[in-house]
Amino acid sequence: MRADAARNLEIVLRTGARLLADDPSASIAAIAAAAGVDRRTVYRRFASREELLVGVYQARYDAVEEAIKAARLREAPVAVALHRYVEGIVAVNRTWPVETNRMLNETTIQERRRLLIDEVDAFIRRATDEGLLRSDVPPGWVASLLPPLMLHAAEELHELSAAQAADVVVDTLLQGVGAPR
């Protein structure tokens, strides 16, 4: 793919993610206009709005996979890996704000999502086994708390960098919000 075509594709996908997060019914024409490209440019790459949606979701999952890989959840010390993971996902949520649950009927998305969840669940077990996380909470509790914390940090802590937002999320996860006694 030519450099300008790759750049246009990236712009269309990121713009699509942003617009679809605000309005799930955003049209290809609206996405093309907001991206600053002709809608024919979008249609050359995506034959339908549904194909564009799949492209946006696949790009988001590519970014999530990259964040998980960069966090080194299996190799890095658990506290370091946790912070890297949260920082990466906050950045992904800011870049690709589209809600992935809308595409869960897409088989390839379902499979990718399951693999990513399994990877994070294994890391949470490792963090619990190594004493970073409490072992006396119900199974799945940490896994259910972490995604909304990261999403909220991405959406509400605009004044903070992804690393600073990760500091807040990790501190909240590990220390809670109760006042010290």
Enumerate the spans where pLDDT stays under 50 for 5 or more consecutive residues: none
Number of helices: 8
In CATH, what is the class of the largest domain?
Answer: Mainly Alpha
If you compute it from the alpha carbons, what radius of gyration comes out, rounded to the nearest whole angstrom?
A: 18 Å
Task: Give the averaged pLDDT, no decimals.
Answer: 90
Distance between the termini: 59 Å
Proportion of beta-strand residues: under 5%
List the helices and strands and how they pair.
Blueprint: H1 3-22, H2 28-35, H3 39-45, H4 49-71, H5 78-95, H6 107-129, H7 141-156, H8 162-175
Helix pairs in contact: 1-2, 1-4, 2-3, 4-5, 4-6, 5-7, 5-8, 7-8
Description:
With 181 residues, the chain is mostly helical. It folds into two domains: 1-47, Arc Repressor Mutant, subunit A (Orthogonal Bundle); 57-175, Tetracycline Repressor, domain 2. 71% of the residues lie in helices and 0% in strands. It has eight helices and no strands. The protein has helices spanning 3-22, 28-35, 39-45, 49-71, 78-95, 107-129, 141-156, 162-175. Helix 1 (3-22) packs across helix 2 (28-35), helix 5 (78-95) packs across helix 7 (141-156) and helix 7 packs antiparallel against helix 8.
For this entry, give a set of tags.
single chain, 181 residues, mainly alpha, Arc Repressor Mutant, subunit A, Tetracycline Repressor, domain 2, 2 domains, 8 helices, 0% strand
